[in-house]
Fold these 2 entries.
Entry 1:
Amino acid sequence: MAEYSEERLDDVRTRDRVVDMMARRGVELEEIAALTYALQGERIPELTEAICLEHVERVVMKREVQNAILTGLELDRLAESNHVNEPLRSMLMDDYGLYGVDEVLALAIVNVYGSIGFTNFGYVDKLKPGVIARIDEEGKREDRCNTFLDDIVGAIASAAASSIAHRYG
Ligand SMILES: [Mg+2]
């Protein structure tokens, strides 16, 4: 049987799988929620990290988001374990600045909640707050590739921030 299906139940199963994949790459949803809070906390006084986590959970239930996570984290992992051919492997391992496909893939996540997400994503990508800085630093290790992970985490936080903005208008 195929490992994927059109069923709603499958989104829940895939949610567990992508959350587990991120945990194995050292990122918990709570840290992403903290980043979302950093993006929106000042603007919305009644916001809490728990509410942010609910929105992060909502984001990782979306199939487009799950597919982007599956794809990006797999490429990071394959590059690390030397299963990617050159010249791509070096571009991924070195987080080559002109590669750009990592940001483009992450836009598939941001896209789900519209234009506010884009603004937040640009902001996160530039300032690299909190968990993003840690992921970036870790990615500089010779044996580590976080080229897709930083953008994916930033995009999930931005999408959740956008979901919150729609809710609290
Ligand atoms: Mg990147």
Entry 2:
Amino acid sequence: MSKIPEDAAERRAIAPVICYPVETLPAPDLGLYRAARAGARKVAEWRVPPREASDFSVPAGQFFRISSIEGPQVGDLNLWNADDMTERFYSGKTRALHGTHLTEGHRLWSSFPALRPMATVVTDSLAWYGVDAFGGRVHDVIGTRCDPYTGNLLSGTQYHHCCHSNLTRAVADARGMTLEDAEPHVHDVLNVFMCTGFTRDTGQYFMKASPVRPGDHLEFFAEIDLLGALSACPGGDCGDRHSSDAAACHALLVEVFAPEDGALQGWVPPARNGYDRSHGR
Ligand SMILES: [Zn+2]
């Protein structure tokens, strides 16, 4: 046990500062997006079966909506630049910029060196949830994705329908890859509809039954051409356990909506990051 210094209280009383103030982040024009969405028509849909994943694609300038349709269900979302899969969703940087959970107006940022918005959250039917008495919030970028390796580490299991494996199969099918080639493309997710936080006492990652109900949805504007994959987590509503077939699981729906021509006047896809990449040499 470490020795408590005399000025411990003083040191603890120092107020925190926000690591990345967002005032200078390029802000999305939500008014423009929502006006464009009002006149948009549905052009595609994918049903994600329980304990499986589906790939989907969304051209830049269109919207995609993830909906609960049959019962409370959490979804694990991966996104890639459709033309260059090395550019993919960067949950850690998204968390550093926007916080542990995402809602309307937040953006899903891509990996280095592009570091640009891939998608913007336009509508969140669970925005009302806010923060509960346990510190739980919805749609986190703190969990990684359930995976068979951690299951094996903790319980010695060989379970094949964790989100990691579901996403791996979806990428393999979408791009005609072997599982070995597809797996490295799978990355840390946006946990759609998942209700999570950290315990105050031990700082451990917790989950609790999602407040999502059929009809609830999270809708995004695609800032660049996207390949997506969504897994209907074997944890179901994640109120009890995951990484097994024990929880009740339900399908999720992905729908794509195309705005009318000219509805996005003035919008252009975001440019790749402007850092010159000389790294001091
Ligand atoms: Zn999962």
